């Protein structure tokens, strides 16, 4: 078998695997939404933010990435989706990514104000925050609608080549946009997340010293707030690691003008898509392994209600998420 045929087979296998992971991601994120919607105990602010991230991941894994993978899987070299599909294929991933990271930032601010300042957002305020996240994400991602379009080029042998990419835009537009996006969608939000969780950790550390080993109500709440804050900080750290390759490769593609469909299947583009796909699964894995309430809720759903969580854990503590999300 020739090397080109082998590479084609490997590329096909990878795309199929990624499509399967996308399907799994959509399923598990739908389960997150179903559990939160069906269980009254999952109605805290934390779960509202988690629902927002799940919705963003569903859009990313269920629509945006499959469009890209379908083009990669196509036997035709030309882009066949049309101008609207071209713009959508580039716009949706960026908006979904920004929605997720801005939700992470909003969670960190909520934890800071709730735990350190003892200030709580109302239901109306929560809805306003979530709407603003989507609006801001859409606004910051909207330049991709201007940047990307379908272009038909005539080759030397008089054949045509149709591609989706950056065509007919000012010379420095891509470099400026890449710089702005990396700062606004990655560096700045993660800096805010780090600062907020550091302040929360310092506050809880001092509070834990005051509480000591007492098992009274206040002590239990403090311990559970520590647990949920650790979980949320872990989600943020994994999110940062998952998206680091994307933003590095995004910048490289923008600067070198290799962000069109002609480059689909190349190792930088493949690595970028892999990081996107597996990032949409990371939150679910963390919820299941780190949050016992989610774990028991999913077990109960999958077992038809036969597997129920005890009202209290072995230490007699109530649910950690209710304590942290209060």
Structure in words:
The chain is mainly alpha-helical and 326 residues long. The protein has a single domain (3-325), classed as Rhodopsin 7-helix transmembrane proteins (Rhopdopsin 7-helix transmembrane proteins). It is 75% helix and 4% strand. It is built from 10 helices and 2 strands, in the order αααααββααααα. The chain has helices spanning 3-38, 45-73, 82-116, 123-141, 143-147, 173-211, 217-256, 267-290, 292-302, 320-325; strands spanning 148-154, 160-166. It has a two-stranded antiparallel ribbon with strand order 1-2. Strand 1 (148-154) and strand 2 (160-166) form a beta hairpin. Helix 1 (3-38) packs antiparallel against helix 2. The longest helix has 40 residues, at 217-256. The protein is globular. Mean pLDDT is 77; it is low at 312-326.
